[in-house]
Amino acid sequence: MAATQTVRCKRGGQLLIALIIAVAAPAVAQVQHDGFSQLLADHVQPSVGGHSSRVNYRALKEDSARLDRYLTVLSAVSPAQYAAFDRREKMAFLINAYNAFTLRLVLDHYPGITSIKDIGGWFSSPWKLRFIPLLGDKLSLDDIEHQRLREPGVFDDPRIHFAVNCASVGCPSLREEAYTAEALDRQLDDQAQRFMSDRSRNRYNPQRQRLEVSKIFDWYEDDFTRGYRGHHSLKGFLAGFSQQLADEPSARNAIREKQLSVSFTDYDWRLNDSQ
């Protein structure tokens, strides 16, 4: 699309009008995640209340051509195109890539596994396998999560830990829709609410009078205490979820006042299979 700009200047007492025709660079098209959304809607089964979800891997494997078409779309994005995305587009792209390629990795070994940790060998975890053609390189799941989504100074948003899904029961739920730039903040906040409302993983223990929360908060504590929304301590971050963590008003108040000790629950690495 051409843009016309009028420039007025004086030369020798005469007013000259110069017309400059500037050709604007074409806008970078957003990645279309609709196909992935429909695939997730068809094969992800949320629990009652939406606190967690399971995947029908058997049906998804039979439907894997749709997943592969979406992976091809992701892999076609060049580094230059990605660089032109805005912050929310980049986050949605990377989160969807992590989740979609995790599904592909599981399907490549299904039904012969009971955990994603069964994939790989003694010297290669599933998260370090470089099988992902993305952004002009061959990446691993760890590369996407730790080198891009968690890179300090880039996004600095701990809510990614409620969005990326490692195909395990202990993970925050795989969302039944793709992430999009337009809805990203709402989706991430909703994921946080869902996960923190899951009393099997995050709860107040009245007998021991302490908080028992997911091991995620132990592994990635720095991400939750780096100043996101003013939080500089794990207790400060958890204080915002007092209603999800406890029923009793006194316990909720103690959580908000950061008075309770925090311990971490065991992580369940079983495959999040609905079968």
TrEMBL record:
This is DUF547 domain-containing protein. Residues 1-29 form the signal peptide. The lineage of its organism: Bacteria, Pseudomonadati, Pseudomonadota, Gammaproteobacteria, Cellvibrionales. Pfam families: DUF547. PANTHER family: ELECTRON CARRIER/ PROTEIN DISULFIDE OXIDOREDUCTASE, ELECTRON CARRIER_ PROTEIN DISULFIDE OXIDOREDUCTASE. InterPro entries: DUF547. Keywords: Signal. The keyword Coiled coil does not apply. It comes from the Bacteria. Residues 85-195 form the DUF547 domain.
